[in-house]
């Protein structure tokens, strides 16, 4: 059984650079059929997370132009992350505590992977997976 984030994380992740537009992000989300993009600088330093909901709430609903609004403009708040050597149980606890389904894995500030709810569910005991799903779904 996997015990560390590095053992269960997806390493082939799609990111959006800070200077790219929200339209670029929306196209990438659609083409890759995903709901979140890490926002990174040119050195893959994690700067934020951009979700499909962010596009709707912070861009479209406010009348901003997705073609001129940059990903940098959507960076906000603290990013909840994992380190490669963090335990799967720690990932489960963070997901429940912060009501998130995906956690970026960072090493020295650089994104190296992503751990999803499904990744954690496969790596823990069934009863822990059930607890995680219940905890995350409360919000």
- Domain tally: 1
Rounded mean pLDDT score: 89
What's the CATH H-level superfamily name? CBS-domain
Strand segment tally: 5
| Helical coverage, percent range | 25-40%
Distance from first to last alpha carbon: 29 Å
How much of the sequence lies in strands comes to 15-25%
Strand order of the largest sheet: 1-2-3
**CATH structural fold name:** CBS-domain
Please state the CA-atom Rg, rounded to the nearest Å.
Answer: 15 Å
Label the overall shape: globular
Structural class: alpha+beta
Order of helices and strands: HEHEEHHEEHH
Largest sheet: 3 strands, mixed
Tally of helical runs: 6
CATH architecture: Roll
Provide the CATH top-level class.
Alpha Beta
Note down, in words, how this protein is organized.
- The chain has helices spanning 5-8, 22-32, 52-60, 88-98, 117-123, 126-136, and strands at residues 16-17, 36-40, 46-51, 102-107, 110-116.
- The chain is an alpha+beta fold and 139 residues long.
- The protein has 6 helices and 5 strands; from the N terminus they run αβαββααββαα.
- The chain has one domain (5-136): CBS-domain, CATH 3.10.580.10.
- The longest helix has 11 residues, at 22-32.
- Helix 4 runs parallel beside helix 6 (126-136).
- It is globular and about 45 Å long.
Task: Explain the layout of strands and helices.
Blueprint: H1 5-8, E1 16-17, H2 22-32, E2 36-40, E3 46-51, H3 52-60, H4 88-98, E4 102-107, E5 110-116, H5 117-123, H6 126-136
Parallel strand pairs: 1-2
Antiparallel strand pairs: 2-3, 4-5
Helix pairs in contact: 4-6, 5-6
